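# nightly structure sweep
# worker-07 picked up a monomer target from the shared queue
# config: single-sequence mode, recycle default, output format = structure tokens
# input follows
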Amino acid sequence: MKTTTFIQRGFLVMMLIASVTLSATAGELTPPRKITSVEGITEYELPNGLRVLLFPDPSKSTITVNITYLVGSRHEGYGETGMAHLLEHMVFKGTPKHPNIPQELTTHGCRPNGTTWYDRTNYFETFSASDENLNWALDMEADRMINSYIAKKDLESEFSVVRNEFESGENDPSGVLMERVMSTAFLWHNYGKSTIGSKEDIEKVPIENLQAFYRKFYQPDNAVLLVAGKIDEAKTLELVNKYFTPIPRPSRVLQPTYTVEPTQDGERSVLLRRTGDVQVASCGYHICAGSHPDYPAIEILADVLSNEPSGRLYKALVESKKASSMYGFSFGLKDPGFMYFQADVLKEKSLDDVQKTMFSVLDNIAKNPVTDEEVTRAKNGILKYYEQTYNNAERMGTTLSEFIAKGDWRLWFYFRDQVEKVTAADVNRVAAYYLKPSNRTNGLFVPEAKPDRVDIAEAPEPKTILKDYKGKAALAQAESFDPSVSNILSRIKSGNMTGGTKYTLLNKTTRGNTVNMVIGLRMGSVTTMKDKGMLPSMTAEMLGRGTAKYTYQQLNDALDQYKANLSVSANGQDVNISVQTTRDNLVKVIALIEEMLRHPVFPPAEFEKLKEEQLAAIESQKSEPQAIASVLFSRLTNPYAKGDVRYSMNFDEQLEATKAARIEDVKGFYQQFYNGQYATVSVVGDFDEKATLGALSTALDNWKATVAYEEAKDEYFDVTPKTEKVNTPDKKNAMLMCGMNLQLHDDDPDFAALVIGNYILGGGFLNSRLAVRVRQKEGISYGIGSYIQAGQTQKAGMFGSYAIFNPDNLDRLITAYKDELTRITTQGVTDTELQDAVKGYLQNRNVSRSQDRELASRMNNYLRWDRSFSWDASLETRMGSLTTADVNTALKKWIQPDKISFVEAGDF
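# output follows
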């Protein structure tokens, strides 16, 4: 006779629960406090926190004692997988008072078991109803709650038992496939880990860790005891009080688990290859927790889809003979769980066809809604199961463990009642909500006679392989370089090449004979660079993609051979080339750069690849809050006319310009603008000065532009403050950019004071005012800061700020930011803040000058601005003599909170 699919699913779930079955031949105490009664079951609580459920049923002369501990695989930490299940085995090993629990269970004619699942572990025994048996059972459960041996010798002997249980599961490809699907669906939550755990964790767990786990979770305040059957309720309550109340409430406090599985953001797939005879196709979906109002409708949906013979998947797969069998069920757990469907497919059948059919059924419920007839049929089967369970005290006693684990035993009755109310509309609603491809994880098992796998060997002990290791000769010691301004000024050499290139050199010994070089090219003017779109950046990118002598690959191979890192970037009128290599290779690398700069061939195939790369990069930025905020803020504060070389294109304009670019345009741009007569070169490190200058002369001399270079200087814009808010759906992080333009030059008298004032407000590491308030105290933002920019050749600067934050915190962030801005501009800074800021900022500049790459970059910029490091000395002297009055006056004068513009981008 066919049983209902609901009961079949229950059986399958129980088979998946890790269990151990034991064979059997047949002073004054505070009274418990009554909590509640529902349909013949009464709940009490003992002073130590143990909850007790009594369910009198005289219809059978048996009693079931079931104790549920609220600990399962969900509670296991790193290296602890399988620990809850391993403890389940160990608790049967005895206590000093009950040293041979299996023998006692047999002697009392019990039908016992113990099971472990995601959210709970339970132990039960059903025995003939008698006072002697009940006394013994309660005494035994109370004793093994806290006095189980959990001994090393027992652990060693039980390893092989649990390992065998593990291995028996490994022999079942269907079960293994489900494990793989679950572990792929749950990235962080422990529901993704098998309850039986990792074989290696099981074998290697230290006994001390297992004992600690036992003492933590096997306590009265973490357990629910149920006694059901032919009992006298008052008498049984006295016995429970007698045996359990003496156990003290533990001093430890259990912290609830808090891991939340993030929303699945796309379909995932698993392919399993093992020895086997039948193919398997499966899929699963994240669903709500078992206590959620949606769950009754989900359980009915699972039945509608998988019931035999009327289930939709059954008909589409089995009845059509595409699959030999199928089943499905839903895990209603403490936390959001999983709905799973699986079909067995004969080897000669198409696995791909079965998967496509399965997806078609699941994806098209909206077009073929679940009917009232289907819902009624499913409800009848589920409610029949409930009625049969409720009519059997023994079965009821153990079934309630699942609902205790969900949060409350009364959920069993509540779920039954909710099932009765479910309509077809409810089922169609949950189907539409949960059965989405983006929420699905697919699994396929493909039998393979001889699986070809890679076994990862255990790592050797480092002390073994390093026993006689000596290493290579140590690098020669480099000089102890003094990064002070005076030392740098004394060692820099500057000059001009015959073709107009300016250079500055700082020669010093370095570790590994490394050398850093920066080359800056400058080209065009506001007029001649108008409407060039993406050509400046695309031309720079193409320089290294093929020359008269070398292909793209050959250039990269040569750079690797010369131990060189080289980057080329363009921004408006500037092309910057940054190099790091070694003394012996610098001249060779300069020769490569000469080839790239003077003899590029711009291969059409590489140009098309570049266009595709840039289009993809731009498209990827269109929904990113940080990129959106950056572009919008730049357009808001620097409103240059469209086509101006200083204009910030939005993403659509960038895409349009990239698509419109042709290889002929790039070649023309190169011929018109590229030159060496306005170049600047800086070199820092260990190098041969004569050879280096000779190579640079060959690369850059006698190379003139067809149009003259004239700097497109930044302009100051007096912008009316405004707030722009951009919604970026499905982005969990948001970006704030805000600020105001300043008519400021870095030689202005207030510049030093403004820089230090801003350092106190939003500079430094995590000790600025903004960071302390917004990140350290209120936890609103991961990163927040502010900055001061000033012109080097004209009065055009900015005070700006930024923050990365959760979109829900926008209002709190803005409030905190404005508070701190108002406070510093009205109340000013303190003497202590000023002293610490000056000290920290000057040391930071010293650190920057100690980094050869940064030093080379600064030297190059100073060539461009006709500036020497004497400017650094002057600025730092001014900073050292600042008073709080200087800083406070400058802040109040320049920073005006009511003139700040805000750009907010995020999923609001």
